[in-house]
Amino acid sequence: MPIPKAELHLHIEGTLEPELAFELAARNGVRLPYADTEELRKAYLFDDLQSFLDLYYSLMAVLRTEDDFEALAEAYLARAAAQGVRHAEIFFDPQAHTARGVSIGTVVEGLGRALDRSRERHGISTRLILCFLRDQSAESALATLDAARPYLHRIVGIGLDSAEVGHPPAKFREVYAVASALGLRKVAHAGEEGPPSYITEALDVLGVERIDHGLRALEDPELVARLVRDRVPLTLCPLSNVRLRAVDVLEAHPLGRMMDAGLMCTVNSDDPAYFGGYVDDTFLAVRAALGLSESRLRELARNSFLAAFLDDEEGLRERYLAEVEAYEFGTG
Ligand code: ADE
Ligand code: ZN
Asked: Does 271 contact ligand 1 (Cβ within 6 A)?
């Protein structure tokens, strides 16, 4: 049995497995430029974030209807349950869909159908986080937040993703201020490929509560001291970092050093259909590659619930934390 955990950094579009992509393509009459799932999988060799994003956005062409988004979320939740996930905070990229003529309502209502029955069917509580594409304009982000207004009861917060370098957090100062006034929680990708100064800027200018990735934090000792002091959670994604070549090999990943430095780390899967594993696969991989102790693994699981946006649900965080403390590691 995998250790109970929350997944806090998961792009729902990044859970689109090749088999489902082909099924949806057939259903919607979309032609994919790959003969079959095997040929598609062969394209999953990335040089960097951008080379992944190109494929990630192009495959989204198969997602057209509420049924498609429901099927996508349902497939993720079933896999996540088997990986010990008890709570999932799920990113979605509305601009990647509205640009193709799919409305934000179709996306949110479709995902919502699967999320609404998730606790009953899979034992997983859920949240939705709307992400802005940082390589699009600030005006487009504002228009997206406006279009999301009828669905805000389904959305806990906002995030910032896509191509990082050259698109610093401050570009989105205004939309984060508007979201804050609406009572939305705030996170942002920072320090994945971009410099540690983007992490500082996301905290100072956007007022984010968690940093997605934060991989490059160790390069700035002052920033590390601040992140440790303020217990700012980092949602690290080690398998993603290897596949997108932010680190050479998993054995060289800074996760262990970051935990030793006192940073509040969590481990997540990012885009598991593309990066070779879901979240417990990631726990097992970092355990083997970095020699993490059981106490470190328990700390990662504990941190995931401490960093979750669970405040409004009476007792849920405490119940999950108790499950983590009661967990017994097996031998296999
Ligand atoms: N969108 C999906 N996955 C992403 C990642 N790892 N970084 C930035 N944007 C993303
Ligand atoms: Zn991500």
From this structure: yes
Please give the span between the terminal C-alpha atoms of the chain, in angstroms, as a whole number: 10
Of 186-200, 252-266, 300-314, least confident by mean pLDDT is 300-314
Among all ligands shown, which has an atom nearest to the Cα of 245? 1
- Structurally, how many domains does the chain consist of? 1
Whether 323 is catalytic: no
Task: Look at residue 181 and tell me whether its pLDDT is greater than 90.
Answer: yes
CA 28 to centroid of ligand 1, rounded, Å = 26
Q: Which residues surround ligand 2, an ion (CB under 5 A)?
A: 270
Q: Which of 74, 192, 193, 201 is catalytic?
A: 192
How far apart are the CA of 276 and the centre of ligand 2, in A?
A: 15
| Domain residue limits at 175 | 5-324
In-domain check, residue 330:
no
Q: Where do we find the tokens 């699967």?
A: 114
HEC string for 165-202: CCCCHHHHHHHHHHHHHCCCEEEEEECCCCCHHHHHHH
**Tokens 């990082």 sit on residue:** 164
pLDDT tens profile 33-75: 999 999 999 999 999 999 999 999 999 999 999 999 999 999 9
Residue 256 lies in a domain: yes
Ligand 1 in reach of 96 Cβ (< 6 A): no
Do 134 and 160 touch, CB atoms closer than 8 A?
Answer: yes
Coil, helix or strand at residue 43:
coil
Between the CA of 161 and the centroid of ligand 1 the distance, in Å, is 5
- Closest CA to ligand 1's atom 6: 270
Q: What's the pTM?
A: 0.98
* Residue 204 DSSP code: I
Atom of ligand 1 nearest to the CA of 244: 6
Q: Is 212 part of a structural domain of the chain?
A: yes
Domain CATH code at residue 53: 3.20.20.140
